[in-house]
Amino acid sequence: MNIEKFKKKNKNQYELLLDNGQKILLYEDVIIKNNLLVNKKIDSKLLEKINKDNGFESIYVKCVKKISTRLRSEEEIKNYLKENLYDEETINKVVDKLKTNKLINDDIFCKSYINDKLLLTNYGPNKIRNELKKHKINDEIINKHLGNIKKEEFENKIDKIINKYIKNNTKFSSIMLKNKIQNVLNDLGYYKEMYIDKLNNIDNKNDDDIFKKEAQKEYIKLSRKYKGKELEMKLKHKLYQKGFNLNKIDEFLCEIVE
Questions:
Q1: Has this prediction a pTM greater than 0.90?
Q2: Cα separation of 190 and 184, whole Å?
């Protein structure tokens, strides 16, 4: 079979018209790799090789399109190919070609990932580290790029989180508020030593006013349903759940009894 004509179909594919009327759609890299621009004769053996090369190139192009939407780690690409049931040899060959063409690079991915999380989320260093480990980025790369982040960047995020919770949770006692904020910061991946002094400095001067307001509110609500000792027990339990001091609660209960 001889190639009679090349016709460009899209950005990187050409249609080959053979002298027997057959048409073959090939990627540009396959045409160059098999020297088809010069050697225009195709026998059955070469045709089999061309089809195999073209199948591989199709898989590679799919990965390139996936990477074009955002940077991908090597692990992401491997998982994507596994999900599509490609064999290990094909997966390794595709990944090697992507790495050779600098389309995947875990060092660059790690740096970009950290910058995105700093810009778009409140993630702390430990959460970022754990997310990167899911991508199987090695500790040396993670430590390098996390180490380049200024301490102030995480401190500013912690300050904003603390101030937000203080502003939006005016009904909580200082103890309960601190516990709530600590749980949030832990979940976001901040180390205790990064925020503990800031939590200890939260002003608790309004605790008495908050307690009186909440105690009176809960008393009015519960007294509609309970009386006597049962009311005292329910009220004590409810206020203790809100993080108020037991001595304050007992004093309030004494006032009610009187």
A1: no
A2: 9
